[in-house]
């Protein structure tokens, strides 16, 4: 944080004492009892395309053709107000202390669905474009991904996938298959050898259209990654 951000955080604490986003009690942004309550409410995993309940988050065989990602794991539906408020507070109000409870909610979803990550899976947070990183001062996906990777004993890689454009360009999977060469435009991989042959878990706070995850996955696969899964706090 730069001096301005520190001063701003200090001023915000004085002006707006912390209240739990769940029960509104003063003292924390998410009290232990509310964290416990919503941990019990994490979702059963579904096919990311047709929402068929399957406990794995994998695409059905007939749905797979629409995405380069094999599974999209999620903790909540984006229309659930509490998780959405928590993500919003982290991302747009810089309430970084919410990153760790959000990571633990992902952990709760992993346990509830008995999901297992293959050994040596790499956790890769969706990067921000450098311009947005400068404006925001932090990458929420990285703040969530760091405790998540530690909890699951997985390595975290934050400096190999980079974002070249500021917004996802809505490339479709069939476009990708037709003209592989120019479809990794939104993201690029600096050191392909580090991802070659590896299983990668892309992590982000939210996925609504799946466009960002898909585009990042194209770049990872083009770099030689074996397969790509996605995991997000909230799925649209
Ligand atoms: Zn509470
Ligand atoms: Zn399906």
Automatic annotation (TrEMBL):
<dbReference type="InterPro" id="IPR000836">
    <property type="entry name" value="PRTase_dom"/>
</dbReference>
<comment type="similarity">
    <text>Belongs to the ComF/GntX family.</text>
</comment>
<keyword id="KW-0472">Membrane</keyword>
<keyword id="KW-1133">Transmembrane helix</keyword>
<dbReference type="InterPro" id="IPR051910">
    <property type="entry name" value="ComF/GntX_DNA_util-trans"/>
</dbReference>
<feature type="domain" description="Double zinc ribbon">
    <location>
        <begin position="12"/>
        <end position="64"/>
    </location>
</feature>
<dbReference type="InterPro" id="IPR044005">
    <property type="entry name" value="DZR_2"/>
</dbReference>
<keyword id="KW-0812">Transmembrane</keyword>
<dbReference type="Pfam" id="PF18912">
    <property type="entry name" value="DZR_2"/>
</dbReference>
<protein>
    <recommendedName>
        <fullName>Double zinc ribbon domain-containing protein</fullName>
    </recommendedName>
</protein>
<dbReference type="InterPro" id="IPR029057">
    <property type="entry name" value="PRTase-like"/>
</dbReference>
<feature type="transmembrane region" description="Helical">
    <location>
        <begin position="216"/>
        <end position="234"/>
    </location>
</feature>
């Amino acid at each position: 944080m730069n001096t301005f951000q520190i001063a701003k955080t200090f001023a915000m604490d004085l002006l707006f004492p912390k209240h739990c986003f769940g029960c509104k009690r003063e003292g924390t942004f998410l009290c232990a009892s509310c964290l416990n309550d919503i941990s019990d409410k994490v979702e059963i995993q579904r096919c990311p395309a047709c929402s068929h309940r399957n406990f794995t988050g994998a695409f059905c065989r007939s749905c797979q053709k629409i995405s380069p990602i094999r599974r999209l794991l999620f903790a909540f539906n984006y229309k659930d107000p509490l998780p959405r408020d928590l993500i919003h507070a982290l991302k747009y109000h810089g309430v970084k202390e919410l990153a760790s409870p959000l990571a633990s909610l992902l952990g709760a979803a992993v346990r509830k669905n008995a999901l297992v990550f293959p050994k040596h899976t790499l956790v890769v947070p969706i990067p921000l474009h450098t311009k947005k990183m400068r404006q925001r001062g932090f990458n929420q996906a990285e703040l969530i991904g760091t405790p998540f990777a530690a909890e699951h004993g997985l390595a975290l890689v934050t400096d190999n996938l980079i974002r070249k454009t500021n917004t996802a360009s809505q490339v479709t999977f069939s476009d990708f298959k037709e003209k592989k060469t120019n479809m990794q435009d939104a993201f690029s991989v600096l050191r392909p050898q580090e991802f070659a042959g590896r299983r990668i878990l892309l992590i982000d706070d939210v996925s609504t259209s799946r466009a960002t995850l898909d585009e990042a996955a194209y770049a990872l696969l083009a770099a030689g990654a074996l397969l790509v899964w996605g995991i997000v706090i909230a799925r649209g």
